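Structure first, sequence second, as always.
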Protein backbone atom coordinates (compact mmCIF):
# COMPACT_ATOMS: atom_id res chain seq x y z
CA UNK A 1 0.00 0.00 0.00
CA UNK A 2 2.93 2.39 0.59
CA UNK A 3 3.75 2.14 -3.13
CA UNK A 4 0.30 3.48 -4.04
CA UNK A 5 0.77 6.48 -1.76
CA UNK A 6 4.10 7.39 -3.35
CA UNK A 7 2.73 7.21 -6.88
CA UNK A 8 1.55 10.41 -8.57
CA UNK A 9 -1.44 9.35 -10.58
CA UNK A 10 -2.13 10.60 -14.10
CA UNK A 11 -4.60 7.88 -15.10
CA UNK A 12 -7.27 6.01 -13.18
CA UNK A 13 -8.62 3.31 -15.44
CA UNK A 14 -6.66 0.09 -14.83
CA UNK A 15 -7.03 -3.02 -16.96
CA UNK A 16 -10.14 -4.96 -16.04
CA UNK A 17 -12.42 -1.97 -15.49
CA UNK A 18 -15.51 -1.78 -17.70
CA UNK A 19 -15.32 1.03 -20.24
CA UNK A 20 -17.99 3.73 -20.01
CA UNK A 21 -20.42 3.74 -22.91
CA UNK A 22 -23.06 6.24 -24.05
CA UNK A 23 -26.65 5.49 -23.13
CA UNK A 24 -28.40 3.22 -25.60
CA UNK A 25 -30.93 5.93 -26.49
CA UNK A 26 -28.18 8.43 -27.39
CA UNK A 27 -29.24 11.10 -24.88
CA UNK A 28 -25.64 11.61 -23.68
CA UNK A 29 -23.88 11.03 -27.02
CA UNK A 30 -22.82 14.69 -27.34
CA UNK A 31 -21.22 14.62 -23.88
CA UNK A 32 -19.01 11.64 -24.81
CA UNK A 33 -18.22 12.93 -28.32
CA UNK A 34 -17.21 16.30 -26.85
CA UNK A 35 -14.97 14.60 -24.29
CA UNK A 36 -13.15 12.86 -27.16
CA UNK A 37 -12.55 16.35 -28.64
CA UNK A 38 -11.31 17.48 -25.18
CA UNK A 39 -14.33 19.70 -24.63
CA UNK A 40 -16.73 19.69 -21.69
CA UNK A 41 -20.35 19.96 -22.80
CA UNK A 42 -23.26 20.35 -20.39
CA UNK A 43 -26.90 20.06 -21.37
CA UNK A 44 -28.88 23.31 -21.24
CA UNK A 45 -32.53 24.13 -21.88
CA UNK A 46 -32.95 26.44 -24.87
CA UNK A 47 -36.22 27.77 -23.44
CA UNK A 48 -35.55 28.53 -19.76
CA UNK A 49 -31.72 28.42 -19.73
CA UNK A 50 -31.44 25.79 -16.99
CA UNK A 51 -28.32 23.61 -17.03
CA UNK A 52 -28.69 19.95 -16.12
CA UNK A 53 -26.56 16.93 -15.54
CA UNK A 54 -27.29 14.06 -16.20
CA UNK A 55 -28.64 14.55 -19.72
CA UNK A 56 -32.32 13.95 -20.35
CA UNK A 57 -34.67 14.40 -23.30
CA UNK A 58 -36.62 17.09 -21.44
CA UNK A 59 -35.65 20.01 -19.22
CA UNK A 60 -35.71 19.16 -15.50
CA UNK A 61 -37.02 22.65 -14.76
CA UNK A 62 -39.66 23.62 -17.37
CA UNK A 63 -40.21 20.24 -19.08
CA UNK A 64 -39.41 21.68 -22.50
CA UNK A 65 -38.17 19.36 -25.21
CA UNK A 66 -35.82 22.12 -26.36
CA UNK A 67 -32.62 20.95 -24.71
CA UNK A 68 -29.24 21.54 -26.29
CA UNK A 69 -25.60 21.64 -25.29
CA UNK A 70 -23.38 24.36 -23.83
CA UNK A 71 -19.58 24.29 -23.90
CA UNK A 72 -18.30 24.79 -20.36
CA UNK A 73 -14.83 26.11 -19.59
CA UNK A 74 -13.76 22.98 -17.70
CA UNK A 75 -12.98 25.06 -14.62
CA UNK A 76 -14.77 24.36 -11.38
CA UNK A 77 -14.42 24.04 -7.66
CA UNK A 78 -14.46 21.09 -5.33
CA UNK A 79 -17.89 20.69 -3.76
CA UNK A 80 -17.13 17.41 -2.00
CA UNK A 81 -14.55 14.63 -2.02
CA UNK A 82 -13.76 11.16 -0.76
CA UNK A 83 -10.38 9.48 -0.33
CA UNK A 84 -11.15 5.90 -1.31
CA UNK A 85 -9.37 3.17 0.66
CA UNK A 86 -11.68 0.26 -0.21
CA UNK A 87 -12.10 -0.24 -3.97
CA UNK A 88 -15.53 -0.26 -5.52
CA UNK A 89 -14.36 -2.73 -8.20
CA UNK A 90 -11.79 -5.56 -7.94
CA UNK A 91 -9.65 -3.97 -10.71
CA UNK A 92 -9.12 -0.93 -8.46
CA UNK A 93 -7.56 -2.93 -5.63
CA UNK A 94 -4.03 -1.78 -6.47
CA UNK A 95 -5.12 1.83 -7.06
CA UNK A 96 -6.08 2.64 -3.47
CA UNK A 97 -6.04 5.14 -2.06
CA UNK A 98 -7.45 7.46 -4.73
CA UNK A 99 -9.45 10.68 -4.62
CA UNK A 100 -12.96 11.09 -5.97
CA UNK A 101 -14.27 14.64 -6.21
CA UNK A 102 -17.63 16.25 -6.90
CA UNK A 103 -16.90 19.37 -8.93
CA UNK A 104 -19.30 22.29 -9.21
CA UNK A 105 -19.18 24.23 -12.50
CA UNK A 106 -19.90 27.94 -11.96
CA UNK A 107 -20.15 28.70 -15.69
CA UNK A 108 -22.72 25.93 -16.19
CA UNK A 109 -25.36 26.74 -13.62
CA UNK A 110 -23.36 25.09 -10.81
CA UNK A 111 -24.14 21.59 -12.04
CA UNK A 112 -21.88 18.98 -10.50
CA UNK A 113 -19.76 16.27 -12.06
CA UNK A 114 -17.93 13.39 -10.39
CA UNK A 115 -14.40 12.34 -11.29
CA UNK A 116 -11.01 11.51 -9.90
CA UNK A 117 -8.63 14.16 -8.62
CA UNK A 118 -5.30 13.48 -10.30
CA UNK A 119 -1.97 13.72 -8.54
CA UNK A 120 -0.84 12.56 -5.12
CA UNK A 121 -3.66 10.51 -3.55
CA UNK A 122 -2.58 11.84 -0.15
CA UNK A 123 -2.66 15.50 -1.14
CA UNK A 124 -4.60 17.92 1.00
CA UNK A 125 -8.01 18.57 -0.52
CA UNK A 126 -9.95 21.73 0.32
CA UNK A 127 -13.62 22.36 -0.25
CA UNK A 128 -14.12 25.12 -2.83
CA UNK A 129 -10.57 24.63 -4.19
CA UNK A 130 -10.26 25.42 -7.91
CA UNK A 131 -9.83 22.54 -10.35
CA UNK A 132 -9.75 22.10 -14.10
CA UNK A 133 -10.83 19.28 -16.36
CA UNK A 134 -8.22 16.87 -17.66
CA UNK A 135 -9.10 14.61 -20.57
CA UNK A 136 -7.82 11.04 -20.22
CA UNK A 137 -7.84 9.34 -23.63
CA UNK A 138 -8.42 5.59 -23.97
CA UNK A 139 -9.14 3.35 -26.92
CA UNK A 140 -12.65 4.39 -28.05
CA UNK A 141 -13.52 6.88 -25.30
CA UNK A 142 -12.20 9.72 -23.14
CA UNK A 143 -12.71 10.20 -19.40
CA UNK A 144 -12.96 13.60 -17.73
CA UNK A 145 -10.80 13.80 -14.62
CA UNK A 146 -9.78 16.79 -12.48
CA UNK A 147 -6.53 18.51 -11.53
CA UNK A 148 -6.01 21.12 -8.79
CA UNK A 149 -5.01 24.58 -10.10
Amino acid sequence: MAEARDEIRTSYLPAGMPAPVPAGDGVDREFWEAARRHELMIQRCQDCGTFQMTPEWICHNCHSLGVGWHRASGRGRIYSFERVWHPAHPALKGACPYLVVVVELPDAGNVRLVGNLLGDPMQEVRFDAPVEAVFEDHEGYTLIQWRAV
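Margin note: Residues 22-148 form one domain.
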